[in-house]
TrEMBL record, chain A:
This is Na+/H+ antiporter subunit G. Pfam families: PhaG_MnhG_YufB (PF03334). Keywords: Membrane, Transmembrane, Transmembrane helix. The chain crosses the membrane at residues 13-34, 46-68, 74-95. It comes from Pseudomonas peradeniyensis. The keyword Membrane applies.
TrEMBL record, chain B:
Keywords: Cell membrane, Membrane, Transmembrane, Transmembrane helix. Belongs to the CPA3 antiporters (TC 2.A.63) subunit E family. The keyword Cell membrane applies. GO terms for cellular component: plasma membrane. It comes from Pseudomonas peradeniyensis. PANTHER family: NA(+)/H(+) ANTIPORTER SUBUNIT E1 (PTHR34584), NA(+)_H(+) ANTIPORTER SUBUNIT E1 (PTHR34584:SF1). The keyword Disulfide bond does not apply. InterPro entries: Cation_antiport_E (IPR002758). It is found in: Cell membrane. This is Na+/H+ antiporter subunit E. It is a multi-pass membrane protein. NCBIfam families: PRK08965.1-2, PRK08965.1-4.
Length: 121, 162
């Protein structure tokens, strides 16, 4: 790669803006985790980092390297796709475990909605 | 044909994934990608005997676009809620949503959508799949929220999977 290639100013501007936006949302997500008090409320803010945060950083990477290499470099977009497939697994597990614990300790959470028979597939 | 490609869409997805990860379409990578696309679904098939039937690509594209916009909107809402949490705590609540969607793959897709949208968390599904318990970060109008949820997410998924 030729290091002396001058990148267009608009590219640096857009990349920086995307990176800053992504980091800002990730930071707000972290602040929310500290600031909010109730468990289920605190499950929401970290999703900021795994959605807009990851999207902006991936987009910045795609844009920057596509212009740098003069051809589409799209593999960074796999990160948001794979995140959106895997994050629900842990989130569901955490939510179910928290509900179970809060019910056993008699806290104010909704009754179990499970009714009828398991459909088994 | 069916024995060689138990899940054709998955085969194509794995093939594309391999080429994208390697950023090359050299013959070697084409061969490895094809091997992955053919072998992985065959090896996985016994673990998941039920097959997904996906229809209506146009509805899928519209749903993905819609979810993308909702994610951005919900991000701004949750960010605002976090920053204002000192003065006005968000009106978090559990919502019971009666479901009409029964297909296992459709429900899996629905759980992905609710988790990816930061304002909602999939909390519990009834065993007979008739009711969903959802935790909402900032709930304004419960009937309107349920109507929006069923209309924008559940109905397209029923068209795609059922």
């Amino acid at each position: 790669m030729n290091e002396s290639v001058a990148l267009p100013f608009w590219l640096e501007l857009v990349t920086a803006a995307l990176l800053l936006t992504g980091s800002l949302f990730a930071l707000i997500g972290a602040i929310g985790l500290v600031r909010l008090k109730e468990y289920f409320q605190r499950m929401h803010p970290p999703a900021l980092a795994s959605t807009i945060g990851a999207w902006c950083v991936a987009l910045a990477s795609i844009l920057y390297f596509s212009v740098l290499k003069q051809s589409p470099v799209l593999h960074a977009w796999l990160i948001p796709i794979l995140l959106s497939i895997t994050v629900p697994v842990t989130t569901l597990l955490l939510a179910r475990a928290a509900l179970f614990r809060k019910r056993t300790s008699g806290e104010d959470v909704p009754e179990e909605v499970s009714s009828g028979r398991d459909r088994g597939n | 044909m069916n024995r060689l490609f138990p899940a054709p869409l998955l085969s194509v997805a794995l093939f594309v994934l391999w080429l994208l990860l390697n950023l090359s379409v050299s013959p070697g990578n084409l061969l490895l990608g094809a091997l992955l696309g053919i072998l992985a679904p065959i090896l996985m098939a016994p673990l998941r005997p039920q097959h997904a039937h996906v229809r209506r690509p146009w509805v899928i594209a519209k749903l993905i676009g819609r979810v993308g916009l909702d994610v951005i909107h919900s991000n701004l809402q949750v960010a605002r809620g976090v920053l204002r949490a000192g003065n006005t705590p968000p009106r978090s609540a559990f919502v019971h949503i009666p479901l009409d969607l029964r297909d296992a793959h459709g429900l899996a897709a629905l759980s992905m959508i609710t988790t990816v949208v930061p304002g909602t968390i999939w909390s519990e599904l009834a065993l007979d799949r008739s009711m969903l318990l959802l935790h909402v970060f900032d709930l304004d109008d419960e009937p309107a929220f349920i109507e929006h949820f069923k209309h924008t997410y559940e109905r397209p998924l029923m068209e795609i999977f059922e």
